[in-house]
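Researcher: Re-running this chain for the archive, since the previous output was lost when a drive failed. Same request as before.
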Amino acid sequence: MKKLNPEKLHVEFRQGVTPTKPIIPRRYTLTHSDITAELFLTIGKKYAHDKINKMRDEVLAQWHICNGQLFLYVYVYVGDFGPVMSYIRNMIFRRELPLALEAIIYGDREFFNAHPKLNNAPIWIHFDSSDPRYNRFEYWATPNDYK
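Model: Regenerated structure tokens:
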């Protein structure tokens, strides 16, 4: 697994969101540059649709409540690109997601310090694909596991 280089992570807080508030709605849009290997994390009440490109290789996340328990819901678009491309995209997302989760948690570390219970909240990943082999909803540990 690649380790996060904090110098390559750029964090932007959008209007209505501070480094510690709110919990809900709090949405993360993580994009990257293939050329510079920089990561761009936008934290806001809404997803940063202006940062999403046509390749749809971003990682989106937000806090949800189910049965009174907070969890981090993460969404990746494996897509509808045919069997070969869906296989490749699924493989890349699975390889890069630990780094993406580390970037989100590190980039929003003041938030996690202010709300220590969230360090043990479950992380659920939705791999969205029209191909049933890749259309999955999986448990991926807790934020503590990505620090």
